Amino acid sequence: MSRSTTRVLAPGLALALAGSLSLAGTQATAVDTAASAPALQQKAVKKATATGYGGAVSSVDPTATRVGLRVLKKGGNAVDAAVATAAALGVTEPYSAGIGGGGYFVYYNAKKKKVSTIDGRETAPGRIRSDAFIDPATGKPYNFTPELVTSGVSVGVPGTPATWEKALRKWGTLDLSGAMAPATKVARKGFRVDETFRQQTLDNEVRFDAFTSTRKLFLPGGDAPAVGTRFRNRQLARTYDLIARKGLKAFYRGKLAGEIVRTVQSPPKTSTTTLPVPVGSMTRADLKSYKALSQKPSKVDYRGYDVYGMAPSSSGGSTVGEALNILEQFDVGSMSDTDALHHYLEATALAFADRAKYVGDPRFVKVPLSDLLSDTFARERACSINPTAALTKPVPAGDVASYDGVCTPAPARKGAVDQDTENISTTNLTVSDRWGNVVEYTLTIEQTGGSGIVVPRRGFLLNNELTDFSTVFDPADPNRIQPGKRPRSSMSPTIILKNGKPFMALGSPGGSTIITTVLQMIFNRIDRGLTIQEAIAAPRATQRNTANVTAEPEFITRYGALLTPLGHKLVPAGDAFTSAAEIGAATAIEFGRKGKVTAVAEPTRRGGGAAGVVSKRR
Questions:
Q1: Fewest CB within 10 angstroms: 131, 287, 419, 470, which?
Q2: What is the pLDDT of residue 129?
Q3: Is the CB of residue 184 less than 8 Å from the CB of residue 241?
Q4: DSSP sequence for 344-394
């Protein structure tokens, strides 16, 4: 199927997708209750594992997964299905992703046997000040929660619509209108409210109640939508229709662009809120000049597998890659669980130390990526690991200007704590098609609920991604605030090849824990011999060069007594915006023989994910 041929067929395919997508019994909206309750008794099925042929989709949401599968079944390719799935997640998972945010898109082209990436990260406005996170009234930094995260000053120029357009133009067969059509239908007809959606709304109730537009959409009648009701977002449907009709310029140059700017510069605060809501400086020129960037992926060889990820501005590919290179210096596959996990935790601490010192937006910072991913550098970093005792954290960064891979006594140095402000939200999807193309895509609006600000009458939340910049100004910090700069990210969409063919694709949300979630899944699958289903379900722990290891309760129960004697201090996961002590919500596809694929999603985390295949038989 050539790109030129399928472009001709795209309008018909788009109509088929919009007209044939059956969503009965799986929707939620703004809000029908008793009248629609009988039709909603059938709960949308979340199947965590699916095995079959012809392509696959895995996401956190069953409706979004079904949208992607429908695109594949109607002849679309992996890129078409990925954009369609992402657009649907903007409807059903509006607190994690949407057109008001950004992300990273990794694509394997089966015909060319090549991995490419798109950096769709948000950018800082051109007028932002280096002290933008300092309260002028006090001269002190804004409190991170809830002031900074609920503000116009934290909103970056969105990159998601530009990412979709760029991916489709480069590799897709649908245009943007066709890819968005199924999601528009979901927004108009609605989706079924589940426990996760209601709880996330309640978790953000104070922030959502601070804005007239957000309160009207997500807190109708003063409460979060009830479980089992249908939530419709007609505002978003109209916004999707506008972009479909007028193209990308409608978002970045038209009337909508002006509305986004006004919302950032003058957030629609309610008269009752006590939140200060610092205003932002975004202009129409910032939106007009935004570009999603094509760039080479990061790449490391790990035990015969080629691991491709996102290069900076993401720190995902560099940090996952460096940690794998460090682990490769040890035969962790032959170790006990205790020793293997000890080495996993220590390798991530070392890689995170280097992330903090060296990684930022490469247009502003000289990132020594080749050094960070050097096997020689990894051998020298691995020298620091004591097989019987955890290092004192934080560990210092390595010296990329002087290394030879030889273990020599190093002078005692104290490491600096990374100013890690990334939130645990975000969403991830994995897609493959019948031709062997693969997409791994992580997209986000940062906080669960983003900035909390819905653009009035437009139905989508704006991100608060600029909180990923370091909150305290330091001229030596590669992640300091600068106009036009992309904040450092931990998003780690990853595609792994074996002998030039896809072996596995995976990714996860989770702020800076994304890096360790992806790394631990690779470690579980390749080194510990777990199946892909077991690798994604296994309890998680994350060491980000801090005094404590953050871990899920099951991990602490299973391994705490074994790791504590080595000096690891394990503390339960959890954050200020959710009671769930979970790390990540991953998706993955593993590729078998003769076109067979195994798509997996979380069995329980974030309410469980949804995986599906085009056909169970060849």
A1: 131
A2: 95
A3: yes
A4: HHHHHHHHHHHHHHH-S-TTTS---HHHHT-HHHHHHHHTT-BTTBPPPSS
Q: Which amino acid is at 293?
A: L
Query: Using alpha carbons only, what angle is made at residue 570 by residues 568 and 573, rounded to the nearest 5 degrees?
Result: 145
Please count the residues of the chain. Answer: 618
The β-bridge relationship of strands 298-302 and 305-309 is: antiparallel
DSSP H stretches of helix in 129-175? 160-171
pLDDT in tens, 113-169: 999 999 999 999 999 999 999 988 888 889 998 889 999 999 999 999 999 999 999
What is the rounded distance in angstroms from the CA atom of residue 84 to the CA atom of residue 45?
19
Task: Tell me which residues are annotated as active site.
Answer: 426
Give the C-alpha separation, 260 to 464, whole Å: 13
Do 462 and 158 contact (CB within 8 A), yes or no? yes
The CATH number of domain 3-292+422-615 is 3.30.360.10: no
**Closest-CA residue to 614 (of 51, 10, 62):** 51
Cβ neighbours, 10 Å, residue 556: 20
The CA distance from 408 to 285, in Å, is: 53
| Contact yes or no for 456/258 (Cβ under 8 A) | no
Q: Both tokens of residue 311?
A: 């290069």
Among 150-164, 406-420, 441-455, the range scoring the smallest mean pLDDT is 406-420
pTM of the model: 0.92
Angle, CA 509 vertex, CA 570 and CA 433 arms, to 5°? 135
DSSP strands (E only) in 18-76: 49-59
Tell me the pLDDT tens digit for each residue of 171-215.
Answer: 999 999 999 999 999 999 999 999 999 999 999 999 999 999 999
Find the radius of gyration of the CA atoms of the chain: 23
